[in-house]
User: Fold Monosaccharide ABC transporter substrate-binding protein (CUT2 family) from Paraburkholderia unamae.
Amino acid sequence: MSSFDRSTLSRRQFMKLGAGAAVAAASGGLSSLAFGAQPVTLACSFRSLTSPYYVAFNKGAQNFAKNAGLSYVPLTTEGSSEKGIADVRALLQKTGGNLVLNVDPNDSADARVIVEACAKAGAFVTTIWNKPKDLHPWDYNPNYVAHLSFDGVANGEATATELFKSMGGKGGVVALGGIFSNVPAIERKAGLMAALKKFPGIELLDFQVADWDSQKAFPIMQAWLTRFNSKIKGVWAANDDMALGAIEALRGEGLAGQLPVSGMDGDQQGLAALKAGEMNSTVYFDPYWLGGIGLSMGLEAKQQKLQVASLSKDKREMFCKPTLVTKANVQQVMALQAAPTADWNNLYARVAGPVVYR
Assistant:
């Protein structure tokens, strides 16, 4: 002790001091850190760090954690729902539930298991992209903070429309889809089908799922080139990674840049391919922002700065604002991507409106 020695206190006086300190701590008068409680841990769970999209997502999370002065743990599912769920459960146990989690579930059904585990442990969770339609944040107040996504139908239709226009509104197209049961994959395919109805001169030659993966898209595209040959006049892909796999197959036949290819996500390699004329369009979702803003919402809810239970539903399940990228604005978007910035305190700056269920 600084001004007096503990030995000068009687045992009774010391016990009184200890009891008073405990009461003060319980009422917020003393920091819980004085009693050995650990600070909150921040974490993101997402598919893989081999994808440029998730590399940017992770960097956004790291930046937010640095600004918040808290430790951060990245968890990767590597395409395995079992691994994703097990890793979250292990971290919940390790942190005693003193956790804020931002999760892009490997599969839609995984979201329910993860949300329930977080709510039971007292952790705070935000979901990105994937969740079942009947799972809502307000069903798990206050622990399930929010769900953030983008309108996959509108974006799938937008890239398909750009592709079909570049084809002159006629000819055969092949299409690559994401994981069959992923909400974004389902919605983006629905957008493609909506665009096809508006362009009767376009024929869908084949649609195959490549699980968001360029390595799976590559042999599919090779097989299509053998099967359909010159009938293929364009390629639609539900994300940039699969579009790049298709472009590699086209390059092997000397066709890269000759056939228009559309993608989605606006990752670094996709934008570079668009600038080089090998892609026709993509959609930029700013994964850097998504990685950090989900953590920011969760931390504010945990700290009771954000009273989530009193928020309207349109501030709990939200579509965010994307950017359709073409040759006309690719340079501008590349500049934003090269030096990403985000105001982590402005939680709703990029919200477009409530999630629409179709």
Notes: The chain has a mean pLDDT of 90. DSSP finds eleven helices and 13 strands in the chain. The CA atoms of residues 56 and 288 lie 5 Å apart. The domain at 41-149+287-321 is CATH 3.40.50.2300 (Rossmann fold).
